[in-house]
Amino acid sequence: MLFVKKIPIIGDNKIFDLIEHYHSDWLVWMLVGIVFIVGIFISMYIYSEVLKITVERDKLRVHFKDKQTEILKKDIMAIFKDKKDLVILIKDGRERIRAKTDYSEDRLQSIFNQEWYPWKDEDPYKADFYQWQLNDTSITEQANEILYKRREAIREDKESMRDELTADLSELGIVVKDIKKVQYIRLIK
Prior knowledge:
Blueprint: H1 2-5, H2 8-11, H3 14-21, H4 25-49, E1 52-55, E2 59-64, E3 67-72, E4 76-82, E5 85-90, E6 95-100, H5 105-114, E7 130-131, H6 141-155, H7 159-171, E8 174-179, E9 182-187
Antiparallel strand pairs: 1-2, 2-3, 4-5, 5-6, 7-9, 8-9
Keywords: Membrane, Transmembrane, Transmembrane helix
Transmembrane segments: 26-47
InterPro entries: CysS_C, PH_YqeB
């Protein structure tokens, strides 16, 4: 406890004085138990946020952020890695999945190629994306409003709101991706 008390900001804390005053074995074990329980909860949260994919011969089962999605192989147009995101496009040109992953592109390509999924080296629609500007005349007023709200959600780090607005845009026939907090869009043809 003496080491902690030497740290300028933390050392003045009355909690450490109390702990030092009542120092005993049961207190140490109680603190170890609390830290252990907090660690379990943090691990459970991180595990629920990680992208998990089961690759089967005729479909993919995707678990991401406590949501489960099944995508039939015959509906998939392309699978590729876009920077740190794994992207799965379906045949109508929509992004069915865009999720961060730490797996390397080579590893992902190997996994999907084993079951003959359509792996691509890059987005087949890469050239169709352009930077969204406020009041873009090539899209509807409703789409501009959603993109404005989405930009605010990005700036305020409201990830779930951003994801909901992305889904709304998909329903309007717009695919959106972010590059350094800037929105790039393409119209689904």
